[in-house]
Amino acid sequence: MRTQFLYEKNLTGVANSVKRKQEQYLKIVRHLYYNGAASIAEIVKAVKISQPLVASLVDDLMGYGMLLDNGIGESIGGRRPNLFCINPEYQYVIGVDINLHSLNLAVFDLSNKQIHREEIKYFDLENSEEYLTALLEKIERMISRLGIAREKYLSVGISIPGLVDARHGLSHTHLSVAENGLAQYLSEKLGMSVQLDNDARIMALGEKAFGKAIDKENVLCLNLSNGIGLGMILNGELHSGKNGFAGEFGHILIDPKGELCHCGKIGCLETLTSGKILVRNVKKAIENGQPTILAQYHEEGKKIDLRAVVEAIQAGDQFAIDQLNQMCEYLGKGLVTLIHLLNPEMVIIGGKLAHTGKIVLDPVAMSMNKYAMSRISSETELVCSDLLDNSALMGTMANVMKCVLSLDE
Ligand SMILES: [Zn+2]
């Protein structure tokens, strides 16, 4: 069942005519959501429905409270037309960004504005009933604190690491204890529809809708955090593959004589270049007496995690930067394979390591220059995300709206 706007739940009549009306309303709402305020004439042109019918549908949607009269627009000769837009407060979307060691929650209005955001640090992802209970409790607490009526929530968008089958709402790597799959479990508990996808793909949707990938057709979005995720925008669309598992870039073979990966294979990219490995190497070096700011952090009792390593890199710690450089050499090598295959116009580095900006970009670019065919790679722009820690949350909003505004069942 498709997620519906509040007004859609009230439509009555013969099934076929309800469906037709629903589609007509949706075409209008979709146009206004993606393009902003528009006059009746502009809507007519975009949705290809007759002028009197559009006028009457817009009237209905105003009656439901879904649209607002946004005042007078620019004249193109003659009387200046009224502009209509979506009422941002008609409904809200909850964004849930599940990370390995933290949780971000947000509420968006229908103008994509984040009206609330909270970060719960040190919230470790575990495949347990306790984690699910704690997650639900955090979401419920946010709902009651905000005081927005429950039926005003359109849907919940979830971003989670690991293998995800978005179509069936299943998370295979994490939280598989959830009965009937994670999406259905949360949907039943919260009484709201739930849209679920892998974090890197959600971040790619965020970049496409609100970040550096706007107006781009072929973009690779990397999530460089504890692991390596990849979301691919190909020909303007998110590429998910047959089962939704596309983008397991972290598990391509780089070193056949390398280390065992947590996926069970040997020498995956992720065993050479990921936040987890960076933290592990740093910890080992501290034990061996390596001079670094991180040794000081350690002595002061600070937890040595990716957050701390990023802080040290930003502070110019030579050892931490050296470690990052080594990692980027492998990353660049892996990226070159993707660039040769897919010829993207842009590669966006996101995730925790994107906070280091130029310090991560330069060595990746250097490695790409070394290994790529220059004619192909010179056309590929390499940038850091500017949505940073917000990209997954923004992506949950983009994903929910994409699902809600889709016209096919
Ligand atoms: Zn692996």
Automatic annotation (TrEMBL):
It comes from the Bacteria. SUPFAM superfamilies: Actin-like ATPase domain (SSF53067), Winged helix' DNA-binding domain (SSF46785). Belongs to the ROK (NagC/XylR) family. PANTHER family: BIFUNCTIONAL UDP-N-ACETYLGLUCOSAMINE 2-EPIMERASE_N-ACETYLMANNOSAMINE KINASE, ROK (REPRESSOR, ORF, KINASE) FAMILY. This is ROK family protein. It comes from Marinifilum caeruleilacunae. The lineage of its organism: Bacteria, Pseudomonadati, Bacteroidota, Bacteroidia, Marinilabiliales.
